[in-house]
Structures are given as structure tokens and as C-alpha cells.
Amino acid sequence: MNNHTLTPSAINHLKKDKVLRKLIDEIGIIELGIPNTDESFKSLVEIIVGQQLSVKAAKSIISRLQNKFGDSYKPADFSNISLDELREIGISNQKGVYILNLVEKINDNQINFNTFEELNNDEIIDRLITIKGIGVWSAKMFLISVLKRTNVFPLEDLTFTNQLKKLYNINDRNSEKKINELNNSWSPFQTFAAKYLWESKDKKIEFSS
Questions:
Q1: What would the CATH number be for the domain defined by 8-33+152-202?
Q2: pTM given for the model
Q3: 37-145 CATH choice from 3.20.10.10, 1.10.340.30, 1.10.287.80, 3.40.50.2300
Q4: What's the confidence (pLDDT) of residue 34?
């Protein structure tokens, strides 16, 4: 399913879920945008930079990266940079190692973003998590934000999981069963459903299923 717009058939499918029906009616149509593999490297760097940082702190470091390399930095920009230079920008030693590992894998053609369009989500995740500092959460955020994949269930994301539990009255006794049911019922439009849950948090929409 490669349609990055919430089509009438997708709306009808998701509106079978009464929580999503309310969110769609209140929030309106959400679109994923157009995939941009040219931004793949930049996006992964920013995902690494943003790990365990506030949005404000991450934006500050990303701004310094852009000041040094321009808005669309490439692997070549990092080929001869040292960890000390990255630390001057505000990137920790560990994250610097992660970024340089990413550059190395791209230069060795172990990671080739141009082939990702041919791969399914699980295959892309398997490749990305070979990069130091990229786990399943980071890989799924990449699928959603860069590749605009429409069927990603980001259970590793804390905000998503908290909203899931809150809006669907999920508790320790019923969590596995209910989450599996939602995972199956939202397919093949899981990403849209996830975006509605994230938006419901931002807009402070309060109700229970």
C-alpha cells in the first residue's frame, strides 16, 4: 500500500474503530507526505542526535550541524570529522561514534538508501538496526518520517503507547490481547492510526472508548 494520503477507503476502514472515528472527525484528514530518500542520512543523524534529549536541546544541536554543513548534510561531510569536533557542536562521544558508524556503513555500501523502496518494513528495520545507536524505535520513526510507510505500528514509542493505553482502557491484564487486536484491525493503515493518537495527545483530546 503506497498511498500516502488518507483515502476514503482508508477512512472507512479506520472509522470502524470508534476511538479513531472520533479522532478523525475532530482532527480531520492527516497525510503522511511524500517519501524523500534524499533526506535519509540527515534524518538518521537527527534521530541519533535527538535520543534522550529534549526537543529544544536536539533542535539546538541540529541547528549547529546545519550552520557547519548546510541544511542538507551528506555522509561526505562527516568523513574526515573527529569526535572532538562533533563534541564541540554538542554531540556526545557515544552519539558521535554512532554517526561515524553510520557514515562507514554507507561508504561501504552496507546501507544503501536507494534500495529501500524495494524492501518491506521488516527488511529495512533489520538493516537499520545493524547501525550502532539505531534500535527498533529509531528504525520505525525513519519508516514513518522519511519513507512515509503507511503500515507501521510504533509500539516502542512511549507517547504512542501511553495514548493507546489511555484511549483504549488497556491494562496489565488485557494489554497483549487488546494490542494485538488493534495491530491487526488497523492494518494496512497503522501509521495513520498512530498519527491520530499522537495528535490526540498534542490537542489534549480527552475521552475513553
A1: 1.10.1670.40
A2: 0.88
A3: 1.10.340.30
A4: 87
